[in-house]
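Q: What would this chain look like folded?
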Amino acid sequence: MSTPAPENFGYYPQPRPRLSVDELPAAKNTRPIRSLDGLAADTFESDEEPAEFLAFAYAERRRDAA
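A: My prediction, written as structure tokens:
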């Protein structure tokens, strides 16, 4: 007994056009970064939270490695 072929057998998605490094930002409608202030984010509410986060992240890494 043979198994039926999948319906999309032989289907390959069309390749995306290759864009140069200079063409990619224009294709994504991106703008250059004018100031690092625009990248700043208020991620943590207090000065202690970054240290707590790093301690948690390191503990999780050690837990996963064990």
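The helical segments are 23-27, 49-65.
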